[in-house]
């Protein structure tokens, strides 16, 4: 399985994502610059964290117009796994691949620390390696992670099992402590915490590794014929 790590001007977690995929997970990864227009040959798409275009206007608001985003939307429509972490999540929201929006953190401070998350839905291609209700420790690092959506959207997310991760403590003011959501089709996940920074014990936690392993396992089950 081959992953694309999309790089925007201002991305700063692209190398962490690349390391998580190629060294911790042992899969193939390649950087793809935002000016590219094709994602042919890639099986999974990763939008890493950072400050694309300096977070000007709103985080992700400029990046979503990057030439590569047409290909990201196309890949999402084709059912390929698309994971947006932190700024990647913000870009997915701005691109309309996920519902809702991000506000500045309650308290208006940048938060950078490990956070305990609860796995709300383990029946997805991203979370099959976890158990329902499992508590995992994944670092957060954001200033604009206060997830907001209207009542109708929230009810839909809840009803369809699209809320994937919740913060144990409401660290940033997010509606119902939402830390990560998925699209209805189940192949696009956005999350503010950084699983790529929690893939080996040396980093303080390896709780993020199962997320990447789940994606690969699902891909193998659906794409690799067994005899
Ligand atoms: N680590 C990141 O991706 C930072 C996300 C974003 N630019 C924010 O501060 O909200």
Name given to the CATH homologous superfamily: Class I glutamine amidotransferase (GATase) domain
Radius of gyration: 16 Å
Domain count: the total is: 1
CATH topology: Rossmann fold
What are the secondary-structure elements, in order, as H or E?
EHEEHEHEEEEHEEEH
Which structural category fits the helices and strands? alpha/beta
Cross-sheet strand order for the largest sheet:
2-1-3-4-11-10-9-6-7
Mean pLDDT: 97
Quote the distance from N terminus to C terminus: 19 Å
Helix content: 10-25%
Q: How would the global form be characterised?
A: globular
EC number: 6.3.5.3, 3.5.1.2
Main location: cytoplasm
Organism: Alkalihalophilus marmarensis DSM 21297
Catalytic activity: N(2)-formyl-N(1)-(5-phospho-beta-D-ribosyl)glycinamide + L-glutamine + ATP + H2O = 2-formamido-N(1)-(5-O-phospho-beta-D-ribosyl)acetamidine + L-glutamate + ADP + phosphate + H(+); L-glutamine + H2O = L-glutamate + NH4(+)
Characteristic key phrases:
alpha/beta; Rossmann fold; 9-stranded mixed beta sheet; 5 helices; 25% strand; binds glutamine; cytoplasm; Phosphoribosylformylglycinamidine synthase subunit PurQ; phosphoribosylformylglycinamidine synthase activity
């Amino acid at each position: 399985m081959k992953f694309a790590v999309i790089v925007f001007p201002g991305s700063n977690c692209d190398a962490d994502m690349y390391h998580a995929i190629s060294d911790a997970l042992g899969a193939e990864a390649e950087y793809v610059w935002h000016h590219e227009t094709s994602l042919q040959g890639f099986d999974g798409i990763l939008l890493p964290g950072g400050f694309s275009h300096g977070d000007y206007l709103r985080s992700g608001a400029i990046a979503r117009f990057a030439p590569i985003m047409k290909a990201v939307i196309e890949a999402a429509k084709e059912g390929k796994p698309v994971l947006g972490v932190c700024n990647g999540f913000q870009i997915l929201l701005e691109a309309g691949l996920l519902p809702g929006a991000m506000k500045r953190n309650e308290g208006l401070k940048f938060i950078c620390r490990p956070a305990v998350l609860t796995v709300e839905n383990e029946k997805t291609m991203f979370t099959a390696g976890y158990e329902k209700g499992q508590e995992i420790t994944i670092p957060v690092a954001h200033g604009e992670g206060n997830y907001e959506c209207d009542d109708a959207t929230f009810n839909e997310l809840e009803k369809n099992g699209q809320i994937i991760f919740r913060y144990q403590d409401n660290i940033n003011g997010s509606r119902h402590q939402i830390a990560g959501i998925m699209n209805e089709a189940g192949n696009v996940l956005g999350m503010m915490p950084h699983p790529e920074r929690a893939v080996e014990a040396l980093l303080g936690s390896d709780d993020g590794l199962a997320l990447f392993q789940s994606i690969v396992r699902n891909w193998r089950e659906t794409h690799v014929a067994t005899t």
